[in-house]
Write a structure and sequence with these properties.
A hairpin with a 4-residue loop joins strand 3 (349-352) and strand 4 (357-360). This protein is 46% helix and 4% strand. By secondary structure, it is mainly α. The protein is built from 20 helices and five strands. The longest helix is centred in the C-terminal third of the chain and has 17 residues, at 313-329. It has two domains: 11-31 and 67-227, no CATH class; 257-397, no CATH class.
């Protein structure tokens, strides 16, 4: 299953979203010795949750801004599948009710447990919400579509009338009024006219072109349309981060590093080179490098408590690169390394698990600041490969 997940999880219609990131699944990924992923979508939250990374590592590499999907996904997987307690009403202080209800379907409405939870705990407060897309995720058989569709939303005004009762039931329980309206105007359904609907209907073995159907109650729909609540997408994005104690009650303090990338080009090229010289002298001398290679987190604590240098994008980025370099040097999990490298923002680098090395995409020009003869990747790669340890230097290459 792990191998199949890694090879095919880019295809959302194979339902690998049904995999729950429990302790067993994460341990299999972390301990995988033959990592050949082209990317990973695992949130570092689960690496922290199961003690594969420490608090300080999580703080340095966490996503600084979370999407509404991230928040809903983490909290509801914890509630439903990992059996943690949480007051779900707190979420709507930060995410608009309508958008929250829309998002939760894509996160947990993909199996019976998730649907039952929505019906028993959420739908009663959102039953008047207007359905704009699919009434239910297209991963359930016909009988469950019929069973759950009417419990999640009010019945459609429009009705898809067709000679084949099986197809009629699928359309009426899967499609919202909005989708049925599109079918009304098109007069026929042919594959290619609606890509997403094509894929959904293939799951129900509806492969032929569908014609001679009728959309009933269209005049009633037009008359009632003005009374349909407008969907709102506003949310408090600045509050959607792991440091929000209402949403994520960690027992340690998190720092917000989002503003560091905002000033990355406020410095001159000469100033950044000066920072590089300081870092080489204070952090990568033989004595300090030895400490970093014995304990990768040493450099994180050193930088956090070092008040002799300013907290800026260059130092923050080069510290994280040295940290993952030490992980590689000490043969840590390739999956953890891959996950962390993907979260080093604004620097073009990637981890190659087959080679167990980090590649910098160096450019000898700077699109953001034409006064610079090269970009950050050149300066950072130079900085961390000037040590006296050839094995450490070899980990990084331009």
């Amino acid at each position: 299953m792990i191998k199949e997940y890694k090879e095919k999880k880019d295809n959302q219609y194979l339902n690998f979203r049904l995999i729950i990131p429990n302790k067993y699944f994460i341990s299999r990924l972390v301990n995988d010795k033959e990592l050949h992923l082209s990317y990973t979508d695992l949130n570092t939250y689960y690496l922290l949750k199961y003690n594969y990374i420490s608090n300080i590592t999580f703080d340095y590499f966490k996503k600084e801004i979370l999407s509404e999907h991230d928040v809903v996904s983490i909290l509801f997987i914890d509630i439903i599948y990992l059996k943690n307690n949480f007051d779900i009403t707190k979420i709507t202080n930060y995410i608009n009710n309508n958008y929250f209800y829309k998002t939760i379907f894509g996160v947990i409405g993909i199996n019976v447990d998730g649907i039952e939870y929505i019906i028993n705990n959420i739908s009663n407060r959102h039953y008047d919400s207007y359905c704009y897309n699919y009434r239910i995720n297209p991963c359930f058989p016909r009988d469950l579509l019929i069973k759950y569709s009417s419990k999640l939303y009010k019945p459609n005004i429009l009705y898809f009338k067709y000679s084949d009762k099986y197809i009629e039931d699928i359309f009426n329980n899967l499609c919202s009024d909005n989708l049925l309206k599109e079918l009304h105007y098109s007069k026929s359904f042919k594959y290619g006219s609606n890509f997403n609907l094509n894929l959904c209907l293939k799951k129900y073995n509806i492969s032929q072109n569908i014609q001679n159907f009728e959309i009933l109650n269209f005049e009633k729909y037009i008359l009632n349309k003005p009374s349909i609540k407008t969907e709102q997408f506003n949310m408090n994005e600045e509050d959607l981060w792991f440091g929000n104690k209402t949403l994520f009650n960690f027992n340690f303090t998190l720092n917000n590093y989002e503003n560091l990338s905002d000033n990355m080009y406020d410095y001159s090229y000469d100033e950044i080179n000066m920072f590089s010289d300081i870092f080489i002298k204070e952090y990568l001398n033989d004595e300090e490098l030895s400490k970093i290679l014995k304990n990768p987190e040493y450099i994180l604590y050193k930088y956090e408590n070092d008040y002799s240098i300013e907290k800026n994008f260059f130092y923050f980025s080069v510290v994280k690169c040295c940290f993952v370099g030490s992980l590689i040097y000490n043969n840590y999990s390739k999956f953890i390394i891959y996950s962390l490298v993907n979260l080093i923002d604004c620097i073009n680098l990637k981890y190659l698990p087959q080679d167990n090395r980090i590649y910098f995409d160096c450019k000898y020009y700077c699109e953001e600041n034409y006064d610079w003869p090269c970009d950050y990747e050149v300066i950072i790669s130079y900085t961390i490969t000037t040590t006296s340890n050839d094995d450490f230097n070899y980990i990084f290459f331009p």
